[in-house]
Amino acid sequence: MKIRIGTRGSTLAIVQCEWVRNRIRKHDPSVKVELVRIKTKGDKILDSPLSKIGGKGLFVKEIEEALLAGKIDLAVHSMKDVPAELPEGLILTAYPKREDPRDALVSLGHVTLAELPRAARLGTSSLRRAAQVLFRRPDLQIVPLRGNVDTRLKKLASGAFDAVILAAAGMTRLGLRKEISRILEANEILPAVGQGALGLEVRKDNRAIIHLLSALNHPPTAAAVQAERAFLERLEGGCQVPIAGFARFEGTALVLEGMVAEVDGSRLLRDETRGTAEKAEAMGIALAERLIDGGAGEILRRIYGKDEEG
Predict the structure, then answer these.
(1) Do residues 263 and 302 both lie within one domain?
(2) Same domain for 139 and 258
């Protein structure tokens, strides 16, 4: 069997695909795996926040089109980049074991979020991160920051920012864990839906690859991501609203936390629910509805209403 994996060209995307390739070869050494680099719209437009140019799908659309056209056989995605709804004909068939899902602060002088000086410049283009930071530190200046991990770290080192927030998973996979000033725990900054998790996307009629990739699936990760994505889908969440969702296991119990906030961090709604892996999807929907009833619906309607009016 030969498998063509579609990937973005960033160093992190390549590292993630090579990791999956090695796992496939370890499971079945006879399989030949080729990486096919595909440039996405999100890789081409680097001077605007994602919330202004279309959101999550910017990093997967061209790869999914290649998958549907039969130009590749498998797509390896960072799950935080994948929209709640997939194109007809495609499925996420396996989720390898999740890497660290938390956010990481990288700062000049390795100071903590609380220790940053008043009006310090913090780089991020994530509304989710910005809103939660401003909820704790409304005095900070949030400055838009796009680009790959290396680009962001170079901008920090140049003095353009006092600190940046990045995904701990990406830093770990790139061997840059030592650069992290502080890991931001989930009770400080709730992670993005799917953060730290990889998703393997294939055509739903490709039974041979689905069978092969089943060996890479990690059931606890699959259940956690399913709960988070159900939460996101019920909220009809995109990049225009600060939304966070994170599920984890405590023993056999699946714990799902969710958050919706005002863009400026002036109001932050957060709640959690507990259940079992078998009820992951129902948990996500129920938690979203509880937040909607508790005030998130008002935030969502106002932000999406403004967006629709341009």
Answers:
(1) yes
(2) no
